[in-house]
Amino acid sequence: MTSTKSKSASIHKTAVITGGASGIGKGIAFECGSLGFDTVILIDINDDKLQKSKAELSSSYPRLNVIIFCKDTSKRENIIKIVESLKHEYSIDHITHLFNNAGIADGKALCTINSEENNDRLH
User: Fold this and answer.
1) How many whole angstroms separate alpha carbon 35 and alpha carbon 27?
2) Model pTM?
């Protein structure tokens, strides 16, 4: 009989983090690295920050596989492209953790914005 501990130790931990180039998303990525995740997939619309975050993560956690996508996650076709790329280019067939963190921040408090505007901000 195999113990639960040995089963969980063999699971390849893969996280997808939208809005992963800065702020909370970047913090989540670093936490995943410190927890021994195998792969983090950062998705953001800011390519410069994505490249910088990837370099910082790779430097801090050399065994961590960092994959980046500069895509707008509010567009369904971009999500489809990302999933297809993960399957075919990176041979990733499962995700163990999903952090939907993408959104538009312009300095306004979310509680001061009407619900229609909030829907456009959170992806």
Assistant:
1) 12
2) 0.80
